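User:
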Amino acid sequence: MGATSGAVWGRAEQQDFRGRVRGALLGVAVGDALGGPVDALSLEEIRSAYGAEGLLDLAPGHGRRGAVTHHTQLTLFSVDGLIRAQVRRDTGAWHPPTDLHRAYLRWAATQRDWGPDERRADDGWLAREEWLYVRRDPARALLIGFGDTTMGTLEAPKNPEEAGPEAVARSAPFGLLVGWEPQLVVQLAVECAAQTHGHPLAYLSAGAYAVIVHALARGDSLDGAVQRALALLAARPGHQPVSDALRHALGAVRQGMPTPARVAELAGDGTADGLLAASVYCALVGEDVRHGLCLAVNQSGPSAAAGALTGGLLGALHGETALPPAWLAELEGRPTILELADDFAMEMTQGPALHGPTGASPGWLARYPRA
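Assistant: Predicted structure:
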């Protein structure tokens, strides 16, 4: 894995980056929360329950409005793992996929345990957030992938037949590594996806999504970001279905007004490549964030994943201020998400000052232990 660049960040650049990090993570969560209550419903069932135009607002799910699912939980642990990987860089034992795997095992513990294990100081602060200790219908591939301590790799992936969207739906944070070269962002996302989803459709979709977010976080347009992803995918064995799905999404934009039928056609049978294409389409054609997210979730496939993916794109593209304030106000875990987003932005822009060779900040290392 490559290192971050040594760029010096100005105040305006730091504020813009923080807004995009907040936007991406809150966008994933609010899209996930919007789609969660209709995740198992067909479009006809959604319209029957919510009216002819479908779901247009947050609805109750898991006992409240604004509840997130495992997609958001794992996205937050992705961020935690990335911060801890950066903190470990100067230890001589730097291998980001391993740090992400450790973070995902901390998530797996939240799905088994009643609450945080206060004896484990090296778990860091995120694993002590009690609201995360709920099961929100995690896919079987996730529970199997993180069911033991063996880490799946590209050479020996976990669940090699699994092509679902769960791995790509946790991959937005890799794109926020703006100091990394794009090909390294792809590589890390791909390697971490293979820890639970060993089919090329799944892990290459994760790599493509991460590098699209990466380009957006650097200020590129969404169309330009997709073109960058296509160029990087071309060198990867087995990329053709994912590349075709992205090109299909770009082509669909020129076919008139967006419709649920077009979203459904792109999403296909709900595999990672289809959900990636549908989310890119919805982000491109949405009149605003709310419209784009509603387009994404009003379909018969995995609505929570589609909302999460679309929200991550729109949040990285437009920043936190473009997200619907009323939805954010009801979003489960919002204070935690903001705190984690700001910590990530601080680590990426000021990391050496927090834990550099001149002396580590004890407070920072208590939050993100090197262990």
